[in-house]
């Protein structure tokens, strides 16, 4: 009898653990918008949506290039930036390699009046080292809370998830790196990959969601974004977005993921495709 009860208890605990993973609802900004972009050429359909959500081409936008290689950036970066070329008129550069600086009110003050933020690509760990859990990070969250939009391409997309992939200093082929597994959390219970199809990364997220089934994995191909508001997103761009969900098994073709295309919408809390209402 004792062994039967023990077996039943173990089965119940396994079921509870499974259900805990199953019911970990992903979520995005309640009032604002997050726009992770998969890198590569960012087309006008993405830039136009960013402009609309920010309030137009004259809206104050903060550009954060910190994921890139240089230690120092000048405002000249803004004159050749894709946002300037698209017609944005009020761009401000924000950059530091010093976390203590990022934690100061003076440095983060420009974010208080911004309507949008744009993270350039590069390496995720640089964003972690400079901004995670600082006053700058809190002001980014405050921007979303007042209805603003945060976009980011490549590394600037991945940093927006709660779980950070490819954060290792040693190289971007390492998916899970101790000390660099926490993103900025604009999307909760979400891990974001980029350059997906272009760099043949389709299978790289599978071991991540297998080890952490509470996570929803998103794989963004180049030139493609998701516009996340609340619990839903819409796909915008020229290619595809892969969905990775360990709780629901492989897609209809037997692979461990399935694709959404431009115009498709998805409920990240319920983890299912839905009919679109416009973000």
State the gist of this model.
The protein is built from 10 helices and 14 strands. It is of the alpha/beta class.
Describe what you observe in this structure.
The chain is 28% helix and 23% strand. The chain is α/β, with parallel strands linked by helices and 279 residues long. It has a nine-stranded mixed β-sheet, with helices on both faces. It has a five-stranded mixed β-sheet with strand order 6-7-8-11-12.
Secondary-structure blueprint of this entry?
Blueprint (H helix, E strand, L loop, with lengths): L1 H21 L10 E5 L6 H11 L6 E4 L11 H4 L2 H5 L4 E3 L5 H4 L2 H4 L7 E4 L4 H8 L3 H11 L3 E5 L1 H4 L2 E3 L23 E7 L12 H6 L4 E5 L3 E6 L2 E6 L2 E5 L13 E4 L3 E3 L4 E3 L5
Parallel strand pairs: 1-5, 2-3, 2-4, 4-5, 6-7, 7-8
Antiparallel strand pairs: 1-9, 8-11, 9-10, 10-13, 11-12, 13-14
Distance between the termini: 57 Å
Query: What is the correct CATH architecture?
Result: 3-Layer(aba) Sandwich
Shape: globular
Helix percentage range? 25-40%
The stretches of 5 or more residues where confidence is low (pLDDT under 50) are 1-21
The number of distinct helices, counting runs of at least 4 residues, comes to 10
Number of strands: 14
Give me the Rg, rounded.
19 Å
H/E series, N to C? HEHEHHEHHEHHEHEEHEEEEEEE
Taking all residues together, what is the mean pLDDT? 92
How many discrete domains? 1
Beta-strand residue percentage: 15-25%
Biggest sheet architecture: 9 strands, mixed
CATH level-four homologous superfamily name:
Class I glutamine amidotransferase (GATase) domain
Oligomeric nature of the chains:
single chain
Which strands sit side by side, in order, in the main sheet?
3-2-4-5-1-9-10-13-14
CATH topology, by name, is Rossmann fold
């Amino acid at each position: 009898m004792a062994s039967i009860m023990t077996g039943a208890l173990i089965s119940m605990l396994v079921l509870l653990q499974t259900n805990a993973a199953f019911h970990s609802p992903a979520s995005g900004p309640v009032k604002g918008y997050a726009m992770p972009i998969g890198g590569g050429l960012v087309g006008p359909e993405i830039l136009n949506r960013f402009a609309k959500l920010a309030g137009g081409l004259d809206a104050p936008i903060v550009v954060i290039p910190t994921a890139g290689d240089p230690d120092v950036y000048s405002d000249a970066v803004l004159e050749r930036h894709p946002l300037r070329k698209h017609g944005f008129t009020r761009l401000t550069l924000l950059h530091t390699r010093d976390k203590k600086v990022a934690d100061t009110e003076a440095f983060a003050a420009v974010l208080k009046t911004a309507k949008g933020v744009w993270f350039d690509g590069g390496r995720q760990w640089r964003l972690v080292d400079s901004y995670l859990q600082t006053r700058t990070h809190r002001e980014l969250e405050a921007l979303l809370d007042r209805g603003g939009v945060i976009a980011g391409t490549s590394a600037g997309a991945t940093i927006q998830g709660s779980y950070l992939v490819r954060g290792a200093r040693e190289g971007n082929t390492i998916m899970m790196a101790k000390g660099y597994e926490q993103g900025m959390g604009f999307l909760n219970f979400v891990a974001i990959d980029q350059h997906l199809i272009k760099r043949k990364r389709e299978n790289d997220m599978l071991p991540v969601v297998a080890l952490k089934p509470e996570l929803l994995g998103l794989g963004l191909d180049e030139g493609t974004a998701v516009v996340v508001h609340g619990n839903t997103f819409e796909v915008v761009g020229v290619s595809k977005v892969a969905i990775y969900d360990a709780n629901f098994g492989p897609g209809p073709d037997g692979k461990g993921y399935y694709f959404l295309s431009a115009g498709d919408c998805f409920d990240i809390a319920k983890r299912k495709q839905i009919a679109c209402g416009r973000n």
